[in-house]
Amino acid sequence: MANQNSTEVARIATRMAISNRDEEEILKESYFKQGVKVTAVNVGGNINESIHKILERALVASKRNNLIRDEHLHEGAVIGATRDALMQVSNRANAQNVGGKIGIARKGEHISVCIFLSIGLLHLDEVVIGIGHRSLPE
């Protein structure tokens, strides 16, 4: 991917969020070769009670996989993008049990966070997806 822009980074974050564990490892290697830093982390539970954990997991995964530095500006970018993604899914998932994955991608000054969730509703499973983006210095 020659010229990474915010749209391409958002697509990559989405692919990470919808991947299974085996695909995730293959994607990590492929994107690493292209100079894109990626990570993914599973989340679950009651959405209203899990917001803090979702934010925390996105931040920890970003630091652990070197997508961001341990700096206020970088941490704020991840938290802000994650909150944007949460706002997009929270209305449909309100007070429901959810399970899914957060995908995060960074290339240059662009970082995107995608949240892909399955909402348990009796025997019917609903799906919802949200995405957030921030720009931050390299």
TrEMBL record:
Keywords: Activator, RNA-binding, Transcription, Transcription regulation. Transmembrane segments: none annotated. One of its GO terms (molecular function) is RNA binding. Pfam families: HutP. CDD domains: HutP. InterPro entries: Regulatory_HutP, Regulatory_HutP_sf. It comes from the Bacteria. Belongs to the HutP family. Homohexamer. Antiterminator that binds to cis-acting regulatory sequences on the mRNA in the presence of histidine, thereby suppressing transcription termination and activating the hut operon for histidine utilization. This is Hut operon positive regulatory protein. The lineage of its organism: Bacteria, Bacillati, Bacillota, Clostridia, Eubacteriales.
